[in-house]
Amino acid sequence: MTERAANKPAAYQGAEYQRAEYERYVAIGDSFTEGVGDELGDGQVRGWADLVAFGLASAATVPPTYANLAIRGKLLAPIVTEQLEPALALGPDLLSICGGGNDLMRPKVAISYIVDLLMRVVDRAGEQGTHVIMLSGANPSAHLPMGSLMQRRGDQLAAAVRPLFAGKGMPGVTFVDNWADTELGQRRFWSADKLHLNARGHTRVAAHVLEALDVPVPGEWGAGATAEAPSDERVQGTLAYYREFVLPWIGRRLTGRSSGDGRPPKRPELTPVDLG
Asked: Where are the beta strands (DSSP E) in the chain?
């Protein structure tokens, strides 16, 4: 173990600390991993997983290839049943998984069920010798309607997964505890819908992941990290907010639809990371 790794905050610690260069990185998950909230000028989304791939490529002797199978709106069970095997079929040596946030927003949720699904990912990846980055989501509860429910359930999930994955808990797993990052809960890291991180928030999560993997974080990522949120991001509880974000979400729940229905993965095949 390196001296730097030994001194990592608990939120960044994983079970393996030696620096590794990964050849194939695949991300699975929901809107958080797809990158919703970090919209580019052409309408595409970027997000923390894209940034992690960029960081890995920037530090590697031979840049890795990268695929992202995440689709917004997915519950954890569809993530595992629909994305895990296609991801492993790509032969990754590094797989990231974050899911369960949409489950926590449903009327009923069993925390033990979420934990069992996460363990299924770890066990299946371990069979293939794939290292897993296990992430918890950032905490949006301070800004959301009924945020206290999200806070309570998120705390319960965090309490269940930390003993399994944090610190030196499980070989082959690096745990990145974004839920424990209280600063990440501040409004300047969140997009206008108050549910998804903005570009600044996604960059902070990417930095957490790279630090956990003992990979240098690009210095330019710190630019603007302490800036105030734009005025339109600070609007709380307006009719426009409920009309644009809350009511469509309720409508999808009532009709059994998802924002990701019919949507393909944004990066279904391993392709080289653009360092340009």
From this structure: 24-29, 65-68, 94-98, 131-136, 173-177, 267-272
Q: Of the candidates 84, 79, 138, which has an alpha carbon nearest to the alpha carbon of residue 114?
A: 79
pLDDT in tens, 164-176: 998 766 789 999 9
pLDDT of 17: 40
Per-residue burial over 18-56, b = 16 or more CB atoms within 10 Å of its CB, e = otherwise:
eeeebbbbbbbbbbbbbbbbbbeeeeebbbbbbbbbbbb
Which residues are CB-neighbours of 191 under 8 A, at least 6 positions away?
36, 37, 197, 198, 201, 233
Question: What homologous superfamily is domain 3-272 in, according to CATH?
Answer: SGNH hydrolase (3.40.50.1110)
d(CA 126, CA 216): 26
DSSP state of 133: E
Tell me the pTM: 0.82
* Residue entry with tokens 């590794």: 20
Tokens, residue 36? 């919703």
Q: Per residue in 72-101, pLDDT tens?
A: 999 999 999 999 999 999 999 999 999 999
Name the β-bridge partners of 39: 45
Using the predicted structure, report yes or no on whether residue 119 has a pLDDT greater than 80. Answer: yes
Spans of all domains in the chain: 3-272
Task: Supply 41's token pair.
Answer: 């000028």
